[in-house]
Design brief:
Keywords: Apoptosis, Cell membrane, Cell projection, Cytoplasm, Fatty acid metabolism, Hydrolase, Lipid metabolism, Membrane, Transit peptide. It is a single chain. By secondary structure, the chain is an alpha+beta fold. The chain is built from four helices and six strands, in the order αααββαββββ. The chain has a six-stranded antiparallel sheet with strand order 1-2-4-5-6-3, with helices on one face. It binds ligand 3IX.
């Protein structure tokens, strides 16, 4: 039996790379928050962070090997820049399926995602919606690559508040897949999206 709210994105594990990535997200947000107004000694910070990066680079597998890994099994939902618990650029948005065939997730965006003062960058909203529409297609049936993405920004999208992101496949006509989605804040739609996806799968690294 399908659970009532099936998970469509990987649940972050409180260990391994997920745990380190969660810490990296904190560092990114804290650096932006602190800025040069902070009392922290930033050149010491830079040395410490570079030492961490040196260590990681030294122990990382070859890119080709890692790419194969990323596209195997559950890996497909672990590395993307929207939901991926292994990707420090991902807020991350956690998506689940709804009984009506659409999908939904909730996210709070902080300073690293700022565009206009106090509000989310429009390109970040586009990123969230492109990905959510793509996952909505996977959930509903045929999926593909984004050919067109049309956005309407109705109201500024607030930082530091719960945002609900939704996606729903509306039609499939041959290879053409049409999908819609929204971002809402406080129960009001702030961004809406319409996407045209073309049924095409690029080969996975192997
Ligand atoms: C069971 C639940 C499991 C849930 C699992 C959860 C997660 C899923 C797992 C993995 C998730 C991973 C990712 C999914 C999420 C999000 C992904 C984000 C999406 C992207 O980030 S993706 C990158 C950006 N995207 C591109 O990088 C595309 C570049 N582009 C191309 O690669 C080609 O351009 C392509 C392929 C689009 C088409 O090329 P093509 O050669 O295959 O087809 P062709 O050109 O013949 O077009 C066929 C018919 O579409 C019409 N058509 C085409 N383009 C059109 C347009 N723009 N406007 C209007 N009509 C258009 C033609 O007019 C023709 O129409 P007609 O047949 O009527 O003549």
């Amino acid at each position: 039996m399908t659970p009532e709210r099936p998970e469509l994105t990987a649940t972050p594990r409180n260990k391994g790379v997920d745990e380190a990535v969660a810490a990296a997200r904190r560092v990114i947000a804290a650096l932006l928050h602190a800025g040069d107004r902070s009392a922290a000694e930033m050149s010491t910070m830079a040395d410490r962070l570079n030492a961490v990066a040196d260590h990681l680079e030294e122990h990382a597998p070859a890119v080709e090997e890692r790419m194969i890994d990323m596209w195997r099994g559950e890996g497909v939902t672990r590395h993307d820049p929207v939901t991926g618990p292994e990707n420090a650029l991902a807020p991350p948005l956690h998506l689940h399926g709804r009984q009506d065939g659409s999908i939904e997730g909730v996210v709070v965006l902080g300073m690293p995602y700022q565009g206009p003062p106090g509000y989310v960058h429009g390109g970040v909203s586009a990123l969230l919606l492109d990905h959510t529409l793509g996952v909505a297609n996977h959930w509903a049936g045929p999926s593909g690559m984004t050919a067109e993405l049309t956005l309407r920004y109705h109201r500024p999208t607030p930082l530091f508040e719960s945002l609900t992101v939704t996606g729903r496949q509306v039609s499939v006509d041959g290879r053409k897949i049409r999908t819609v989605g929204t971002i809402s804040a406080g129960g009001e739609v702030v961004v809406s999206a319409e996407g045209l996806f073309i049924d095409k799968q690029l080969p996975r690294p192997r």
